[in-house]
Design a protein that fits this description.
The chain has helices at residues 2-18, 39-45, 54-57, 64-76, 101-118, 128-131, 139-159, 180-190, 201-207, 212-216, 243-251, 267-286, and strands spanning 29-33, 49-53, 80-85, 122-125, 163-167, 195-200, 221-226, 257-260. It is α/β, with parallel strands linked by helices. An eight-stranded parallel barrel has the order 1-2-3-4-5-6-7-8, surrounded by six helices.
Length: 289
Amino acid sequence: MRNRFLFLLACTVVLSFSGFVSNKPAYPQLGIVAGLAQDSLAYSAGFKLIGESVPKILAPALSDEEFRANLKKIKAAKCKVLSCNLFFPGTLKIAGPNVDEAKVLAYTETVLSRAKEAGVKYIVLGSSGARSIPAGYDIDKAKSDFVALCKKLGQLAKKNNVTILLENLETTETNFITSLKAAAEIVTQVNEPNFRLNVDIFHMLREGESPDEIIAAGAVVGFCEIAEKEKRTLPGVAGDDFRPYLSALKKINYKGFIFIEASSSNPAAEYPIAFKYLSNQLAAVYSRK
C-alpha cells in the first residue's frame, strides 16, 4: 500500500512538472467587448469572456432596482462579464484644472463596489473626454495631479478587489496620455497593485508605436485590447497581422487577457471569423520556442 502511494505521488509530481497538471493557460485568453446584448453570439463564436460598459451596468445613474436587474442578466449570461469600459463620463473631469476630487471618488466607489458585486474584475480607464485638458495647460501639473488622483483610485480598486486599467488613447480622441509609453509612466508612478496598464494595440497602430514599447512597459502590463487599424474592424476583416505585437506580449510572458474592442456591421458572421483568426495568430506566436 505504501509503495503504491509513493508511486502515485511520484506520478503526480512528474505530471505537474511536465505541464499536464496546471490551471494556467498556455497563452492569453480571448474576450470581446460585445455587451450582454451580444452574449449568445459571442459564446457561439467561441468566446467565453465579454466586456460591457460602466454606463450600461454599473454607473451611479442606475437605480438600485436597475442594477439588480443587471445582476440577473450577468448571472444568466453564457459568457463571463470580465471587464467594463467607458469608466468616467466626459462631464466628470479627472485631469486638468476642473477636477472635483470628492465627486470623482464618490462616483468611483459606487462603480467599483457594484463591479465587485457583479464579479467584474477589470475597469478600463480610457475616458477621453474626462481626461482631456485645456489647450496650453501645464502638462507637468496635469500629470502630477493625475498620478495623485489615480493613487486614490487604485486604493479604492484594491478595497473592492477590482483592477483599474489605464488605456493608451490616440491623438484624435484626447490630448492627454496618447501613447503606451506615456500611459506606462503614469502607471509606474501611481505604483498601486490594482492600477495597471491596458495595452491597446489598436491605438498603438494608429499612433505608429513600435511593439518594443510593450516590452519596455512589461512590468506594469495588466490587460490588452485589440482591433484592426484602418476602420477599427474585427480581426480577420481586413487581415491585419498582429503577430509583432503578440510576440512582444510573449516576450514579457504575458498570459492574461486579450479583448477585441472593434466595430462590426455583422456580428453573427464576423465574431466566429475574429475568434478563429486571432486564435490562430496567438497560437502561431506562443507555440514558438
